[in-house]
UniProtKB/TrEMBL annotation:
Residues 18-100 form the Thioesterase domain. Belongs to the 4-hydroxybenzoyl-CoA thioesterase family. This is 4-hydroxybenzoyl-CoA thioesterase family active site. InterPro entries: 4-hydroxybenzoyl-CoA_TE, HotDog_dom_sf, Thioestr_dom, Tol-Pal_acyl-CoA_thioesterase, YbgC/YbaW. The lineage of its organism: Bacteria, Pseudomonadati, Pseudomonadota, Alphaproteobacteria, Rhodobacterales. The keyword rRNA processing does not apply.
Length: 131
């Protein structure tokens, strides 16, 4: 399943040239990942409170292809690529219309609140469609 989330580029997101500052793409994809997990039915606050499990970014491989600019309407697409007991590999793409501006592969890991590896809850693994 591919999750889609629209984001508007605000003035605060841009640099002096009116182009989205590179680090803001990481914020955009973070928001989209949060909404993706929420749409899968997972309340991350509840997951931490009840099971002591949190997700952390382990790795990001990103390509900045074309600039987004002030007032653009962007769409962040999030799609799971691979799932193991404690890791999720996601593809995230930021588009303007049909044009890809940014793409990333993000590896998430499940951790206990002490930082030790944890198994991803079965209900979350079952809700993710890979491919």
């Amino acid at each position: 399943m591919t999750h889609r989330m629209d984001i508007r580029v605000y003035y605060e997101d841009t640099d002096l040239a009116g182009i989205v500052y590179y680090a803001n793409y990481l914020k955009y994809i973070e928001r989209a990942r949060t909404e993706y997990v929420r749409e899968l039915g997972v309340d991350q606050g509840q997951l931490k409170a009840e099971q002591g499990i949190v997700f952390a970014v382990r790795r990001v491989e990103a390509d900045y292809l074309l600039p987004a600019r002030f007032d653009d309407l962007l769409c962040v697409e999030t799609r799971p690529l691979k799932l193991t007991g404690a890791r999720i590999l996601l593809e995230q793409v930021v588009k303007r219309g049909g044009t890809v501006l940014f793409q990333a592969e993000v590896t998430l890991v499940a951790l206990t609140d002490t930082g030790a590896p944890a198994r991803i809850p079965a209900e979350l693994r079952q809700s993710m469609t890979i491919g």
